[in-house]
Design goal:
This protein is mostly helical. Helices cover about 95% and strands about 0% of the residues. It has one helix spanning about 1-130. This is Dynein regulatory complex protein 12. It is found in: Cytoplasm, Cytoskeleton, Flagellum axoneme. Component of the nexin-dynein regulatory complex (N-DRC). It comes from Collichthys lucidus (Big head croaker).
């Protein structure tokens, strides 16, 4: 009987030891898990802060890109307007130059025709003085 009591005592002691060990392991795991949760919560908090900063940076970059694009568009429109005005001005200059040239050619032509007529008249008179008919030649 004693032997059995001793075995029973031993088993109870073993059970208490196992129970105690399991409790200790449980508490250790619970502490580790709690620490890990706290660490992950801190990391999540930091990542959220970084995300907010990154989103703000992204908004700033988008605004800056839109501003630069608007400036480029305004510059292109301004240059296109200047180009159109230059084209109109050059067209006016070309028309004025061509009109002036046409006018000068017309005046020169009249002068040549007058000289030519005078020259022909002189030659006719010379031919007639020699007794020749200009139409026969």
């Amino acid at each position: 009987m004693r032997d059995m009591e001793q075995k029973l005592q031993q088993e109870r002691q073993d059970r208490r030891d196992v129970n105690s060990d399991l409790s200790r392991q449980y508490k250790t795991m619970q502490t580790e898990l709690s620490n890990k949760v706290k660490t992950l919560e801190k990391e999540v908090s930091q990542l959220k802060e970084e995300l907010v900063l990154c989103q703000e940076d992204l908004r700033k970059e988008k605004r800056e890109r839109e501003r630069v694009q608007q400036e480029k568009d305004a510059t292109v429109n301004d240059l296109q307007h200047k180009l159109d005005n230059m084209e109109i001005e050059y067209e006016k200059i070309l028309h004025e130059t061509l009109d002036s040239l046409t006018s000068q050619l017309s005046v020169a032509r009249q002068g040549w025709e007058e000289k030519s007529t005078a020259l022909h008249q002189n030659y006719k008179e010379l031919l007639s003085e020699f007794g020749l008919n200009a139409f026969d030649i």
